[in-house]
Amino acid sequence: VHLYDLGHPIVGDPLYGEKALQSCFPRLMLHALRLTLPSPSGPPIIVEAPISASFQALQHSLCQ
């Protein structure tokens, strides 16, 4: 909603995204490669998630 309010909705967002683009983007086009979370009992927790093949394929098709 915050990005929508700024005029930049997340592509693929079924609620706030542009309706004309929904058929082209079957999912929310948002990805975090790495998250670092504080841990109350030790070093930060680092979670990594590689970009999926389907996300990469769609990303490459947009750049062509």
Sequence-ordered SSE layout with sheet pairings:
Layout: H1 2-5, E1 34-37, E2 45-48, H2 53-63
Antiparallel strand pairs: 1-2
Report on the structure:
This protein has 64 residues and is an alpha+beta fold. The chain has helices spanning 2-5, 53-63; strands at residues 34-37, 45-48. Strands 1-2 form a two-stranded antiparallel sheet. The model has no long low-confidence stretch (mean pLDDT 87). Strand 1 (34-37) and strand 2 (45-48) form a beta hairpin.
Quick structural overview:
This protein has 64 residues and is of the alpha+beta class.
Features:
2 helices; 64 residues; 2 strands; two-stranded antiparallel sheet; alpha+beta; flat
How many helices does DSSP assign?
2
How many beta-strand segments?
2
- Helix fraction? 10-25%
Shape, principal axes of CA atoms? flat
Give the helix/strand class. alpha+beta
Order of helices and strands: HEEH
Distance between the termini: 29 Å
**Major sheet: arrangement of strands:** 1-2
The whole-number mean of residue pLDDT values reads: 87
Low-confidence stretches: none
Proportion of residues in β-strands: 5-15%
